[in-house]
Amino acid sequence: MNHELLPTITSLKFKTLIHEYAHAQLHHKDSDMQKLPRGHKEAQAEAVAFIVSKYYGLDTEPYSAGYIATWAKDIQLAKQAMKEIQHVAQGIIQEIDELMKERIKELRQIHESSKDQDKNNKNEKDKEMQLQR
Questions:
Q1: CA 102 to chain centroid
Q2: Taking 60 as the threshold, does the pLDDT of residue 58 lie above it?
Q3: What is the pTM for the complete model shown?
């Protein structure tokens, strides 16, 4: 596998996950937007994916711009979709940030317990060495 492509593949996987999650947030059965034409819904979901990806430093513009243009078919629809999705994009960013805070907290706890374990192991080793003298 070409390792230069890995960041691009990872970015597109993240973007695709967010795109599908945006559909779930925007177009669920009780949503006012559920009955929109497919092109409108695709433009909305990709716009959310683009905004969220961009927030996290992932450049999906080469793919997202073409995808939105293909489905929206006109600039006014694309602009409308962008306005409609701002709150969903912000909500997803907040959810990811919260999940990341929890994960960072977990990793810190693991790191601290690992440091404590290392310290205990060192103390045990020191005791053994003293007993051997």
A1: 14
A2: yes
A3: 0.71
